[in-house]
Predict the 3D structure of the following.
Amino acid sequence: MAKSLSNIELNLNQFSPIAQSALQHFNLSARQEKVSFEKGVWANETPPAGYIRLRGNAQNPVFLAATQAALGAHIPCLACTSIKTEFGSLYWLSIDEWLIVTSVESRATLQAKLEQSLTGIHSLVADQSGGMTTIKVLGKHAADALSHCTVYDLHALNMGKVVGTSFGKLSVFLCADHDGYRLLFRRSFADYIWRYLERAAEPYGFAIANLS
Amino acid sequence: MSRINKPRIKHKHSRVNLSKPLNFTFDGKPYIGYQGDTLASALLANGIKVMARSFKYGRPRGIVGSWAEEPNCLVQIDMGAKTTPDLKATQVELYEGLVAGRTSGWPSLAFDLKSIGGHFSRFMPAGFYYKTFKWPAKFWPLYEHVIRKAAGYGASPIEADVETYDHKHHHTDVLVVGGGAAGLLAAQLSGQCGASVILLDDQSEMGGYLLSTPNTTIGGKNALEWRDSVITELQSLPNVQILTRTTAFGLHDMNMIQAVELLQDHLPHHQRNAIQRRERLHRIRANKVVLATGAFERPLVFGNNDVPGVMTVSALATYFNRYGVACGKHTLILTSNDSAYQAVADLAAGGVKVTLADVRDNINAEWDAHFKQLGIDVFTGFGISEVLGSNSVTGARLSKLHPTNPMENFEKDLLRRRVVNVRDISCDVIASSGGLSPTVHLFCHDGGRPTWSDESLAFVVSANGRANAGIYCVGAVTGEFQLQKGLEKTVQTTQEMLASLGKSATNTMALNTNEIAPNPTKAIFHIATSKKAFVDFQNDVAVTDIQLAVRENFKSIEHIKRYTALGFGTDQGKLSNVNGFAIAAEALGKTIPEVGTTTYRPAYTPVSFGALAGAHVAETFEPRRYTAMQASHEQFGAEYETVGNWMRPWYFPQNGEDMQAAVNRECLAARNGVAIMDASTLGKIDIQGKDVREFLNRVYSNSWSQLASGKCRYGLMLNEAGMVMDDGVTACITDTHFLMTTTTGGAANVLNWLEKWHQTEWTELEVYMTSVTDHWATASLVGPKSREVLAKLCSDIDLNKDAFKFMEWRDGTVAGVPARVFRISFSGELAYEINVDASYGNYVWQALMAAGKAFDITPYGTETMHVLRAEKGFIIVGQETDGSVTPLDLDMAWAVSLKKPFSFIGKRSLARSDTVRTDRKQLVGLLTEDPTIVLKEGAQIINSSNISPPVAMFGHVTSSYYSAFLGRSIALALVTDGFKRRENVESIFAYAEGKAIKAKIVSSVFVDAEGARHHG
């Protein structure tokens, strides 16, 4: 559980910054349970991660070579695909846009490598770690619960496929995992998306999953 | 002789379980029904005949139909927050403890005051309301009140709904709408070949009319056995989903079908699951839609046809066979077609005395023999000229029909000639059948039209005429009213549909039925009478009303509909429309296809607001976007204002302060000490690439060629018309990397705008952009003490005023967190905007609060922000601007560079004759003569205190506040020729809410015009 921030004692010589997740206020970690068959839908916010937005011209071999050199992996150029890499995941978002998800610790190094490798090449690299979060949804009724939230055809969402789609009145990136779904979205959407998901899932039996 | 002594009978095929009695009340009285009953069947079984009073004349009314076509019996179900008005008693499933009330009849069902008016009905013709209540116009509110009370119908709940609803999205290969014989077969064939199938039906169980005609056989099995075998197979197929109690009420473009499922309304309260929804709106996107929506039987129209006890033959058969209710002991059936005959036979075999009148001169020999055997009196060539009885049917007068024109009044002629061709029959229930009207609604919702078939005497739809759109039709909706032929064609059509999906299906079931080949239906819609003959029961539209409308020169059926209110009710004319079209055609001297139909629009049946809202209620009504500092804002008791879905702190009241007191305190803290605001919601767009400067040159009106790294600049964004659409500060991070800020509400639009221009017009510019709004949490530290506060937390940026100047930014750390600090100011004070990764936003905010404690740091919200910026004359896009304001109108020529080598968006429009006028509405300041008066925002600018109209208007107040710092009110206004009038310090009056307040025109900058404070 995160340290309370109220009445912070300020030590001007030694600061100890505290990071908070987008869904901190729901105190999910205190309510999480071991995943079982008793509930139809399980969900939780995944641990904090580093998010890097990458844009560039996928038709440009120089761009592709530079990203590959920095990432050690080919960025997925096939629409709506994602890949797992050593450092995390790479999601295709649009014809010239990708999302790189990695650990908080390795984000800065990876970003620096990318920026260096892409110097002088038409591209964009931006840290979005503070602005994104991920919810994992699993359980035997995960798809049912999500079908109340998104118009996307979940049967058409094969493993690894990632789509930008609707979620209630907002939008998310939705990705199918081997054991459920991943919703990636903006930090400021978190409250609404969590409440909406919880409401949709409740009739199927809902609990907060211990993802570790 | 009738063998029926009470309405509830034991019927071996009944779907009602007589071993499970259920208590319910109607109109305050207790009754008993059984599991499987509808409220209508239970009331009929209890001998209740009058269940409603009519809309216009207050005439007693009873049950006419057995499902969604019912026009009369609208009931109020349940009480308090759970009450639902105007449900059709025919569609309400009975449950233990159900409380039902009438929705019409005032003061009671037995006596309705309007029925007195009914005696004067010749004074209440079609268009009565338009004609009578038109003058004087100012009395309309009074008329409306009385009319609404008289019109009756149910009461909306006045308490908040305690039930919940949701939406569910589906994608399927095949959607079959309707679970009657044809729908079941189509679903079965589709399911067998592996297609994903959704089969839905609005009733509590699948089967459709098969449930009402159990003596029909298919492939040697009786209808119910056949139904059971198909359902069993469908249930075994994992690719088939079956939804009962689910009404497809709209078919939209691209075959998106909306259907509402009633999940719990059929359960007694104690069995309802609080965590489950009451209703669910299914949004089904189907590759192929099979409409198996069937047909409703059309009644014949005759004199006094609204007396309780008059119904359709199919309803009578349904109550008898499906619910085990004999609606009367002696039934008179009037028909124009053979489809009624099976019901005649079923009733007679079941012990009901039946008299049959057929408008045709000859009767099918096979049926005739059968009827003789059953002891049924048959009158051929007869119609009903008049129903006898007032509160319930006691008999009917049969008249021989005119040989060539049955709608001609022949009766008097016959009487005159003393031809004994009038027979009075005594009976207690009358049922009529004028043929079937296919349920073509869904087919027509997205532009399809039905066509008139002389053969079927109905508006029908083509089985595969809309195959290109993926819409196929099977069964009675196509005008194929015989079961065996219908099923055979269903196989064909379904195979064709499946072939278009690349699948093939083979029917293995025997589809032969025991139907007797029918004689043709006779084209007759109403029978001549001197009595009132109703076409539309719900709106009291009689034959004479339609004829009157035509005489008054209404020619289009859409106009006739609106003038008479034909088909306007909650039944949407399911029984009445086609009769109305036919009667109008007759009056117009046209054919029915020439007259055509009115337009079929969603919803097919009424849908609750709850179902439409779904999850979009309460906490999930609208997205609420929160910043990373939300926990701190809650701790400080913020009041909120919604800005573009963001929940922004509006002000932070302390110790019971009102808004003005809080804002005064917050403003003074910012001007005199230090204050802090959450500016995280401002849009932030990261733009990178070698052509960033050029890109900015084109989207902003000012120039970006020279801005050095480490510096910021304010920019105005114009649309093509030269009008201000957004503003913000943009920083040069490196030569190829800029960070743009936008207004909170404009962020998404601006990003789209930039992408649009880049992707469509300036593809050659090497730039990419992305939103980083959510990534950066931003705290604005404002006030003369802000430097001292920041210094406590930041040791790696030189905060000296010459080292870190106004409109510059620095990278460093704040409270140990990597931060990008901007020295920019929307308040006119010394100010720093501290941007950090939003994960640390709340921590840094708390650190700033702790560091500022010694200076009494004061958090402030958007209201104080507005006052501070208005004191400085800073605009808010959308408040000072409204899409008709140029930078020059705002006195911001300094933010327009006409020298840029390439154009910028809006440049050309700034040279239009209208935009170069010098007397446009221009932004100025206003100071009221009385400094304590705060002008109303939106007040009109006028030139004198004389407010007798007409008064010329010269602009309006855009912003107006009390400034605690100045100790007086201030305002900004757009005033015609404002700059010139400002030079002369002219006086104007601001008019709002009946008052004209005197003020003088001054500069829009009220505080620190030279900028000493923010440069400090």
Remarks:
- Chain A touches chain B through 58 residues (CB under 8 Å).
- Chain A is about 20% helix and 30% strand.
- The radius of gyration of chain A is 18 Å.
- The mean pLDDT of chain A is 94.
